[in-house]
Amino acid sequence: MSSPHHTNANSSKEEEVPTVFDELIPSLEALSDGFKDMHKQFVKLKRVNDNLVEFNDSFGAFLFGLAANDTTIAWRSPTTESEIARHKKHLEQLHTHEATKAVQIVKQSPHTAAAASSSSVPATAVAQSSSTLAAAAKLAPRSLLKRPTATKSSETARKKHKTAPEIPKQLVSNRRFEPKVNVGSIINRLPIKYQDRGAPHDHMTSVLKILGLHPEGLTARKLSSETRLAQRFITDCVNTLVFRKEVLKVQEEGQYARYLFDPARFPSVPK
After folding, report:
1. 265 vs 12, 112, 185, 210, 248, CA distance in Å?
2. Among 66, 153, 204, 207, which one has the highest count of C-beta atoms within 10 angstroms of its own C-beta?
3. pLDDT 10s digits, 157-185
4. Which helix (H) or strand (E) holds 270?
5. Cα dihedral 260/262/264/266 (nearest 10)
């Protein structure tokens, strides 16, 4: 039997034997260090890219403002040096004019007392003349002091004549439905907003009643004039009726679209 000391020596010799992978270790370590450096460089490059994106956004807004300013302002010609000099001269003239006005105000202030004293004499004269006029007015007959009154004809001429708004003439059809169209049953088949009491229900009821009087159909404009509703309400109602197949939309060449009840479901007869 071999001793334990001999077996340990053999195992240490086997571990010290170089392999093929030992030669690759330095290269792999260098490659790992290179990837770490490349990662750091990419992080810095990403920061540069983020800053560049922020700059592009800000500068893009600035360029948009310049473009909007350029489209709204008509530049006839570029500013020349002579125009700049003329503008500076104009500003200097304004400053000198304001300065001279201030000096004149300061110079005139000592003479205000003398002017006030000199104006007291004509003030008394004015008071005397006003008193004489008042006395003459008392002595004058009342008929001369009365103001002329406007006649009734002139007053009526000034008043604006209020005219009643024109009521559009209702269209009359030469046919009628037999039997009559049941408006309530049609509304019960429509969406809930037309069934509940409110503006949509009233608008839809008006449209259906008018269509029930005209078997040949009406255009949206005629429906608006007959129901006295705005065009947008008429459009909403007829679109819903057409979508629910309660009303037909007939489009003839060169004419506006007409909305009418289906003749197969709602027959009509001459009046």
Report:
1. 106, 99, 14, 17, 11
2. 207
3. 555 555 545 545 556 677 888 788 999 99
4. strand 268-270
5. -70
DSSP annotation string for 118-135: HTHHHHHHHHHHHHHHHH
Domains of the chain: 175-264 (1.10.10.10)
b/e 211-245 (16+ beta carbons within 10 angstroms → b)? bbbbbebbebebbbbbbebeeebbebbbebbeeee
**Unique residue bearing structure tokens 């400053």:** 95
Distance CA 244, CA 204 (A): 13
Task: Give the closest residue to 225 by CA, choosing from 207, 242, 202, 248.
Answer: 207
Q: Express as a percent the part of the chain with pLDDT over 70.
A: 65
Per the structure block, which two tokens stand in for 176?
């009628």
Confidence grade of residue 113 (pLDDT, cut at 50, 70, 90): very low
The owner of tokens 């008043």 is 159
The rounded distance, in Å, linking the Cα atoms of 214 and 172 is 8
Asked whether the beta carbons of 176 and 212 are under 8 A apart, the reply is no
What does the block give as tokens for 118? 């000199």
Look at the block and give the residue holding tokens 């370590």: 29
Task: List, in order, residues 6 or more apart from 229 with CB less than 8 Å away.
Answer: 203, 206, 207, 223
